Amino acid sequence: MIAQDVTEQPRPSPRAEPSERIATTWHSQIPDDKEMLRAAVELTRDISEARAAIYWPDMLGSALLGYAALAGAILLQNPLVALACGIFSALMLYRALLFIHELTHIHKDALPGFRFVWNLLVGIPMMIPSFMYEGVHTQHHARTRYGTNDDPEYMPLALMKPWSLPVFALTAILLPLALLVRSAILVPLGVIVPPLRKLVWERASALSINPQYRRRKPEGDFARMVFWQELGASVWTISVLAASYLYGWRPLIIALCVISFTAFLNQVRTLVAHLWENDGEAMTVTAQYLDSVNVPPPALLSPLWAPVGLRFHALHHLLPSMPYHSLGECHRRLSTHLGANSTYEQASYKGLMTLLTRLARSTMQAR
């Protein structure tokens, strides 16, 4: 009866502009669109395998280009050229870093060695080993957790104060410094101070945005993986600090600035990954889909600010295990099969600025 009362409330037209859709929790218990859910599975089975020939060159190329450009930003004397190198480095390292999202979803045997190499080249040097997302992000996809207080990656941003948006985005700039302190100081100290080790694990070992989230102690094989990744990150950060003390701080400062920009880009992307309209209720799968965002073609810049398939974030919530390189074809098939006025098309938006404007207007109407 409660679900019926909710779904009887006026529902915005699927063709309405984003600015006309008012932030609300009306859709938390919307009945599942079974045709869409069935089509998402049946029409995409043949493209659901992760292809090593795409993953490896993409990740390795992004990382190597990012580090080469970072070297240019550090070594080149022309300020404008160095700045351009720094921006390009941030974009490439951003793409390389976001393969952490793929690591949480692909089968452990799908790409042998990929996790190890990614951590060696990207995760540990950028102070974000894969354990900080693995075991966390999957909770965001849990049917009964999404959008609730138990979701580590959800905050009802659309229902919060307008000033919360710039604060949310700008705090990411401090992330690299916090990660440096974490791996170089807090983790080693935690070896001899158990309460500190427990605190760091629970509160500072997950890429989460929910301040209420507390991470559970790792167990089994995952605990062993965490140990080696933590050790690698601590050895790396301590070595970088020691080298900076001996040979100068300029390279480290420039590298931290590049990583800060990368973190800021990711935080802005996070702002528009969902509509953030749910206020703690458990949601149906279709409701979760409608609270998520696709920015499909013809949006030209979305592959830059939402790389590695994340411009199809709503579709990803329908098919969490679908490899990033197949999402564009999945979108084409579902759009063609379900039609322009379908539930599926309601999650598609025009671009970044449209979504940011919509979110800002929602915060102004919410309180």
Give a quick precis of the structure.
The chain is mainly alpha-helical.
Task: Characterise the protein shown here.
There is one protein chain. With 367 residues, this protein is mostly helical. The protein is built from 17 helices and no strands. It has a domain of 250 residues. 56% of the residues lie in helices and 0% in strands. It is globular and about 65 Å long. The protein starts with a helix and ends with a helix. The N terminus is likely disordered. This is Fatty acid desaturase. InterPro entries: FA_desaturase_dom (IPR005804), Fatty_acid_desaturase (IPR012171). Keywords: Membrane, Transmembrane, Transmembrane helix.
Give start-end ranges of low-pLDDT stretches.
1-25
Structural class by helix and strand composition: mainly alpha
Distance between the termini: 28 Å
Rg, Å, rounded = 21 Å
* Series of secondary-structure elements, N-terminal to C-terminal: HHHHHHHHHHHHHHHHH
Helix content: 55-70%
Shape: globular
Q: How many runs of DSSP E, i.e. beta strands?
A: 0
Oligomer: single chain
Largest sheet: none
The mean pLDDT is 91
Strand content: under 5%
Summed up, the helix count is 17
List the helices and strands and how they pair.
Blueprint (H helix, E strand, L loop, with lengths): L1 H6 L26 H9 L9 H24 L3 H19 L1 H5 L10 H10 L13 H4 L23 H7 L4 H18 L1 H10 L16 H28 L2 H22 L13 H6 L11 H4 L7 H6 L8 H12 L13 H15 L1
Helix pairs in contact: 2-16, 3-4, 3-6, 4-12, 8-12, 9-10, 9-11
Task: Provide keyphrases for this structure.
single chain, 367 residues, mainly alpha, Fatty acid desaturase, transmembrane helix, Fatty_acid_desaturase, membrane, FA_desaturase_dom
